[in-house]
Here is the input.
Amino acid sequence: MEGRPSLLALAPAAATVVVMLSLSCSWCGGGASAARVIAAGGGAGRHPVVLIPGAGGNQLEARLTDEYRPCSLACRVWPPVRGRGGWFRLWFDPSVLLAPLTRCFAERMMLRYDAGADDFRNAPGVETRVSDFGSTSTLRYLDPNLKILTGYMNTLASTLEKAGYEEGRDLFGAPYDFRYGLAGPGHPSAVGTAYLQRLRLLVESARAANGGRPAILVAHSLGGLFALQLLARSPAPWRAANVARLVTLSAPWGGSVQEMLTFASGNTLGVPFVDASLIRDEQRTSESNLWLLPAPGVFGNTTLVVSRAHGDGGGNRSYSAKNMTQFLRDIGFEEGVEPYRARIRPLVEALPEPGVPVTCLVGTGVDTVESLVYGEGGFDEPPEEVVYGDGDGTVNLASLVGPVKAWADSPAQVVEVVELPKVSHSGILNDKSALEQIIRIIDSINLNATSYQTS
Ligand SMILES: *[C@@H]1O[C@H](CO)[C@@H](O)[C@H](O)[C@H]1NC(C)=O
Ligand SMILES: *[C@@H]1O[C@H](CO)[C@@H](O)[C@H](O)[C@H]1NC(C)=O
Ligand SMILES: *[C@@H]1O[C@H](CO)[C@@H](O)[C@H](O)[C@H]1NC(C)=O
Ligand SMILES: *[C@@H]1O[C@H](CO)[C@@H](O)[C@H](O)[C@H]1NC(C)=O
Here is the structure.
């Protein structure tokens, strides 16, 4: 799987689907060897584990109301079979790969920024929900009812089960609507903050059901950013009482350069028959995609994108992470400028410390987009040149470890970074050495568990 682009990029790239499917095949038989029976803490039991997936690992259901105005007849009738209350699978649904239906998918996935309310909303006539919150089932199976196609967190969950964890007792899942993000202080984020509150309650009840032992949060990719915000937005006594450790896998703390490619050109990751521009327009509307653009604090003045079409007086125009509003304007996404400037930039400018011990597992040594050169054709053409650097294939090394090194300077903050050579952004969920590390960390926390009272 090394070097494959992956799920961070807001999976709505249809291609991600293929990555997920192929991952599930290569997973057969994987992972088991990493399982050891986790120490039961001298009879006191285990610390509960809460799994927080990355963007594409979540599943969304939708239903359409009278307000829905489909762009085609196909979209009016698709999907022909719907569940109780009219709910059907929106993400992940393989029909996204069929060209006429890609359009239906895109118009239903799309968010819009409501300037009056200063918040993001679903498209008119589209209601969405995340089912099975608290359970790991939607993280483990592409179809939780059939349980045939395994989802991307299945190996990790199975490894924990082999080590003695049990679904619903001390193992939980916290899926979310990955299209939405969070915003800086003073800006509402109805969907994102409701998720944080749900997650907070899940962590508290997991702890209460497990002898008062605080939870271990295991978060992949975008899930790490949500987990960090949960911690930063909770008082220190809450953190100390409820969270034993944050374990992040491939967390894109400072965003990724690949995200600029997604915004400019769309990102079908090379899958045929998918209209990149259609996917691009949908991907642009996702608030979490704005969140994943390269952060100025991490990428500084480094030139990330050059455009020969936008040069003044025949020259080139260069964009660093500090030029993101200009970049959004130049790619023709004016609607994104204000939400980025007001909501996202203040959020990514100050990356708070987790305030609980943290272990960051990061893949390195996989070619990762580091800069892009666009030619005379501008941003509607694919880049003329793509320069690769170090990272996990999706997230740049600077973003994976830069902010973590800054936390390490703080005496109160316990930080551990585990580098996994040649492990890709999503491959980390399937990689034997990564799974062994996760078990090692959880094991050592559980060995300390005797000091908690059962009350
Ligand atoms: C980045 O660019 C700004 C403005 O051009 C400059 O003031 C600043 O010193 C530069 N920072 C670094 C680290 O080079
Ligand atoms: C613009 O950038 C391209 C690619 O980096 C380079 O080859 C070219 O010389 C530059 N042109 C100018 C006028 O800077
Ligand atoms: C990018 O930002 C730098 C420093 O903040 C500024 O000097 C430069 O003009 C900006 N470039 C564009 C294309 O906006
Ligand atoms: C276990 O407890 C010891 C002593 O209090 C502490 O130093 C160590 O960091 C703890 N280990 C973990 C994984 O929490």
Observations:
- Residues 444-445, 448 surround 2-acetamido-2-deoxy-beta-D-glucopyranose (ligand 4) (CB under 6 Å).
- The longest strand covers residues 243-249.
